[in-house]
Design a protein that fits this description.
The protein is α+β, with helices and mostly antiparallel strands and 148 residues long. It has a domain at 3-84: Ribosomal protein S16 (S16 Ribosomal Protein, Chain: A), CATH 3.30.1320.10. The chain is 25% helix and 22% strand. It has four helices and five strands. The protein has helices spanning 53-61, 68-77, 86-91, 125-136; strands at residues 3-12, 15-24, 35-41, 48-51, 65-66. It has a five-stranded mixed beta sheet with strand order 4-3-2-1-5. Strand 1 (3-12) and strand 2 (15-24) form a beta hairpin.
């Protein structure tokens, strides 16, 4: 499960208020979350930002990735947004020759193909008929009633 630290919108129309939450990356922006880490009120002048620093650092150390906006807000508070120390990150070098995709060509995924189903799915009679009609390239005959 990939965990992200993101802003969850709350508040009324035209009056945004955000909660900083740790959530599964597959969930909706305002959907289920794992833990509330703080809140951000951009309407207040100056903006209000309250963060539970120990909880945020704990999630980041577990591998949670902050969103761009959250990372920006955390930098303003002086919280490191990377799970690895800065000294270690500087010593890691980029690979010498990274593959470059040609323009107009999509890069192929190197992951393995998903396994095929053991049992084929059953298809309804209506879908089977529609598929047969498409293959034949003909439209189904429509009966017209004679009105006189």
């Amino acid at each position: 499960m990939a965990v992200v630290i993101r802003l969850m919108r709350a508040g009324a129309k035209k009056r945004p208020f955000y909660r900083m939450v740790a959530a599964d990356s597959r969930r909706q922006r305002d959907g289920r979350f794992l833990e509330i880490l703080g809140h951000y009120n951009p309407v207040a002048d100056p903006f209000e930002l309250v963060v539970q620093k120990d909880k945020v650092e704990a999630w980041i150390s577990k591998g949670a990735q902050p969103s761009e906006q959250v990372a920006s807000l955390l930098r303003k508070l002086g919280i490191v947004t990377r799970s690895q120390p800065a000294a270690h990150a500087a010593s890691v070098e980029a690979p010498a020759a990274a593959p470059v995709a040609r323009p107009g060509k999509a890069a192929k995924a190197t992951s393995a193909k998903p396994a095929k189903r053991a049992v084929k799915r059953s298809v309804s009679a209506r879908k089977t008929k529609a598929r047969a009609v498409r293959k034949a390239g003909k439209k189904p005959a429509v009966k017209k009633s004679a009105k006189s």
